[in-house]
Amino acid sequence: MYLELRHLRTLQAIRATGSLAGAATRLHVTQSALSHQIKALEQHFDTALFFRQSRPLRFSPAGEMLANLAERLLPEVVAAEQRLSGMALGRQGRLHIAIECHSCFQWLLPTMDHYREDWPGVEMDLSLGFSFHPLPALVRGEIDLVVTSDPDPDLRGIHYEPLFRHEVLLAMHTGSPLARKAWLAPQDLAAATLITYPVCRSRLDVFARFLEPAGVEPAAVRTSELTVMIIQLVVSRRGVAALPNWALDEYRDQGQLVARPLGRSGLWSPLYAAVREESREAPFIDAFLRLARAVTAERLSGIEPLEA
Prior knowledge:
Number of domains: 3
Helix content: 40-55%
CATH architecture of the largest domain: 3-Layer(aba) Sandwich
Distance between the termini: 57 Å
Number of helices: 10
Protein name: HTH-type transcriptional regulator MetR
Family: Belongs to the LysR transcriptional regulatory family.
Organism: Nitrococcus mobilis Nb-231
Subcellular location: Cytoplasm
Shape: rod-shaped
Pfam family, one: LysR_substrate
């Protein structure tokens, strides 16, 4: 015989009502059934749970210990049952997000703030996907959503939800000679100091899709983790930086820097939300994706819809 939740619920009901009859009524069982349940428990552990001559019924030390256990444990059981029911209905769950885009904080954090108001039952967390490989972690179930511009066709079980496409622009000081050009060729950066995020070049469009195909290497490369620091370095004539158009709008409007397209047609980059295929239709996942598209459409200028 094992101690079961039904035993704890019985002891909790007896403490609340003061009698077997009251507990039986509360639990919707017969008094005889509760009496047999208590006797079987006492026989198995060879100890009395009550002082039977007391009115109202009073617990023995052993009974008091189990009643206290019931008070601590059963609320957690009820909460877990409610959470499981919420998960089944798609109202509760876990949404651990990893991002591969430093400048995405500008729209992602407001999205998360709005989302928490409508989905308080969803546990949220945010990781920077720069020190690990987030897409394999998504497949393993360690995280639940990855903001990425680089879908991996070799990984199975991932759905890539299109968010939007944006133009990557080269930011430079207003007095830079490059500012005289309408657009920039790869060779224009051969004498420049390029300021980037500290990630491998294969994950930076300015290298993977602009400089390296043309066989061009900038004169120097400098890194910073923060977008605002990269922009301050550009403003202070320390170099140039390739950044999403939306990250530069405020500084261009203030006349602190200028930005030019990379290539005659511009360098456009897609952005996806990667989720596991089996969780794509979960209501709390779908709601986050819808909200992300709405927030970015409202807050970010110069972006375009991205087709699936």
